[in-house]
Structures are given as structure tokens and as C-alpha cells.
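Entry type: protein chain
Record version: 2
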Amino acid sequence: MIGKYWKDWGPPKSVLARGNHWWKLYPELHNEPADIYVTKPKYNAFWGSDLEAVLRGLAVESLIFTGIMTDVCVQTTLVDAFHRDFNPIIAVDATCTATPYKKEALLMIESCYGRALTPCVYVPCVYCN
């Protein structure tokens, strides 16, 4: 079933492979050398990564989700965050997808797993100056 969504890109492994243009971070994010980076090998950012250990080490309780592929990567990671006892929040207008299922995914997320914020509101960061 998932093959129909990847028909123009090849198998998922090629899209998620380290070093290709889909893997690189946007320079506009102003990444700093002290930032923490977690390699995400699959759609779910918790699977096969040290993301949970990093978040627990920082005493993180709530996660604000943004990103592309709302109904795939964002949703699978958000649902897993919920099951790991984090408080997941999705910033609705800071997500997008290439499939026609964003609205359904957002409704499911809000009704079952977390809160949905729209439009995005400023949330102060306790770790920022």
C-alpha cells in the first residue's frame, strides 16, 4: 500500500538515507554547533534512535510537532510520543503533506493523542535566552 505514495521517489530507504538532499537540514534554521542532533532512520523518530534518552535527559515533558508528511512521519512519531508518556502538541499550520490525508490525520491526532494548535501561537522556550 505505501508503495503508491513512493512511486516517484523510490523506496523509503533512499529518501531517508544519510547524505541525500532530503536528509540535509535547512540553513535557515540557524543550526548551532551546540545543538543536539538525533538521526532518524525510519518514519517514527523514536524507532532506532536515542531520541527518548535525549528528551528524558533534558527533562522534556511536552513536544511540539511541526514538519512535512503530517500523516506519515509526524503522525507516527506523535503517536509514539503519546505512548511514551510525553504530552504531544501539533502545530497545525506548521505541517504539510504530499498525500490527501492531512485533515483526517489531524482530526485523529487531536481526538485521540494530543492537542492541536492553530494558528501557531508563540510558545516560550524554557531553555532559550
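Comment: The beta strands are 62-68, 87-96, 115-117.
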